[in-house]
């Protein structure tokens, strides 16, 4: 890695693991970036006791520890809940740039009507704060919705149980999911899927407005925007944006609410 290129910290999604970022890690390493993917509590291997005791606050502590272990101020790339954690991280650390991939907002995650039938079966576990893992049908219909069937077949067994406490906080918009917008001083890029059934397109547009961010939207991509099948469409524009803002030394101007 050259001295001009900061490290990149990747923060994974709910029901995800660092291993599912492999295509993105390989892509950015091939361009000369040092990359690391943080592990949220209760996985690798799955530990339901840890998951039961963990919520967004514990996930953020893990993300903060991973960032502070790096040797220099870093770029943060967050997918889904990883994007929310990235927003919180950029508010308290000197982050060089923030990339939000199908990011959950720093507030209430409003469900879409077409996804509500898939939320109902897991609602008791979510409300009780128990570990939760939706069934394969839900995974195919919601986060993986527009991916090729063969890719869905490969991904479904790799998705892992996650914290019902964290899921509940996202749904209710509790204080743990908030981020101080005015403290986020780095450039921000929002990348969203037009076919996302977890984060509605209007939410992604609102996140972009919140940070005066550039917004790259891929109409046919689902919530699982990090899928290997979409890598060559989604990752190159992210790389182009990143190298442009790093070269310019740009500091983003925040929109006022």
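^ structure tokens above, recovered residues below v
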């Amino acid at each position: 890695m050259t001295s001009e290129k900061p490290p990149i910290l990747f923060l994974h999604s709910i029901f995800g693991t660092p291993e599912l970022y492999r295509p993105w890690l390989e892509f950015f390493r091939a361009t000369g970036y040092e990359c690391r993917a943080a592990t949220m509590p209760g996985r690798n291997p799955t530990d339901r006791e840890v998951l039961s005791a963990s919520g967004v606050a514990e996930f953020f502590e893990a993300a903060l520890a991973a960032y502070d272990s790096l040797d220099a101020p870093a770029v943060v790339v967050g997918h889904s809940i990883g994007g929310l954690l990235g927003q919180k991280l950029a508010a308290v650390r000197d982050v060089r740039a923030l990339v939000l991939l199908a990011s959950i907002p720093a507030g209430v995650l409003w469900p879409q009507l077409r996804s509500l039938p898939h939320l109902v079966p897991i609602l008791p576990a979510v409300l009780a704060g128990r570990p939760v893992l939706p069934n394969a049908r839900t995974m195919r219909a919601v986060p993986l919705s527009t991916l090729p069937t063969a890719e869905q077949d490969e991904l479904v067994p790799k998705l892992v149980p996650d914290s019902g406490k964290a899921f509940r906080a996202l749904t209710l918009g509790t204080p743990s999911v908030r981020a101080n917008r005015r403290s986020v001083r780095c450039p921000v890029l929002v990348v969203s899927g037009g076919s996302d059934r977890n984060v509605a397109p209007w939410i992604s547009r609102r996140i972009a407005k919140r940070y005066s961010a550039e917004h790259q939207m891929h109409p046919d991509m689902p919530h699982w925007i990090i899928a290997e099948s979409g890598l060559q469409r989604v990752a190159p524009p992210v790389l182009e944006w990143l190298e442009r803002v790093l070269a310019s030394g740009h500091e983003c101007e925040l929109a006022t609410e």
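The CA atoms of residues 147 and 190 lie 21 Å apart.
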